[in-house]
Design a protein that fits this description.
It is built from two helices and 13 strands. The protein is mainly β. It has a domain of 194 residues.
């Protein structure tokens, strides 16, 4: 499987040499950023009230992520744009709590992602992305020490994913979906996964630098019975089109705990997030 996937990307890359026009290290990206996908390469932070075990917990939950996506080459042929690139991403999760009257910030979990992508568009409304990426999740030292984790935990979250995504764009709406398969995992894991979502944006009082935002995102894994992990959000976007926007959101999530070895635990959270989407091409 690995050999066939490698051969696919090898053929796609060298086909660029036959294109009518190509640009190395282009600015921007054919495939748009997905604001509510926690794994989207961006810089973001969030702080949430945590719900688990059928009650609100006396602790806060936080995500912090840093990542970027860089296209290596883009080529155009017969009004069709295509590009090849890579992406890197790290997410860190924290627990804020006050046991015995003493405030603690515990590093809970880390997730690392590295991958390559092939993206293309046939017209302005439809965009596509084929990716191969590696995922690796690990418990934080603070969590291991303070919660006395003294047994080895089988890590089912070390695997590779091959997925295909499609986006439909209109002046105010973005609709998207993806379907993927895990061709290799360090431990036995059911292979199918996917996601889908929507985004709505509209200028506030006609300002091109200020927009309302409403969105929803759902992710599914066969390993957890395709139970949806759902994120809903409302907020504003600051930044002119073509620039790197800041997104400020009130958002919530319900589903299995994502991006962690304890991904069989159902949780919910609600709070606030801020994210910064670098222009793909700065790096």
């Amino acid at each position: 499987m690995k050999k066939s996937v490698s051969l696919l990307f090898f053929i796609l890359f060298f086909s660029t040499l036959c294109a009518q026009q190509h640009v190395w290290l282009p600015a921007g990206s054919v495939f748009p950023a997905l604001t509510l996908d926690y794994r989207e390469p961006h810089v973001a932070g969030s702080l949430y009230a945590l719900h688990s075990n059928k009650k609100w917990q006396d602790r806060m939950f936080a995500n912090f992520s840093v990542g970027f996506s860089r296209n290596i080459i883009r080529w155009t042929k017969d009004n069709r744009q295509q590009e090849l690139g890579f992406e890197l991403f790290v997410m860190t999760q924290f627990l804020f709590e006050n046991p015995l009257g003493r405030f603690q910030v515990n590093l809970f979990s880390n997730e690392f992602k590295v991958g390559v992508h092939y993206q293309w568009q046939n017209n302005e409304k439809w965009r596509y992305r084929l990716r191969l990426y590696h995922i690796s999740d690990h418990l934080g030292d603070d969590f291991i020490y303070r919660f006395l984790v003294n047994d080895y935990v089988d890590n089912l979250r070390i695997y590779e994913v091959l997925d295909l995504s499609v986006v439909r764009l209109t002046p105010h709406w973005k609709l998207y979906a993806s379907a993927g398969v895990i061709p290799h995992s360090a431990y036995e894991r059911l292979p199918l996964l996917g996601e889908m979502g929507f985004e709505w944006k509209k200028s506030i009082n006609g300002h091109d630098w200020l927009q309302w935002f409403v969105g929803g995102h759902a992710q599914f894994e066969q390993e957890t019975g395709f139970y949806p992990g759902t994120r809903l959000a409302f907020g504003i976007i600051l930044g002119k089109p073509g620039h790197a926007p800041f997104t400020i959101l009130l958002d919530g999530y319900q589903g299995y705990l994502p991006f962690s070895l304890y991904d069989k635990v159902k949780v919910g959270w609600i709070g606030g997030s801020i994210s910064f989407q670098p222009i793909r091409g700065w790096f």
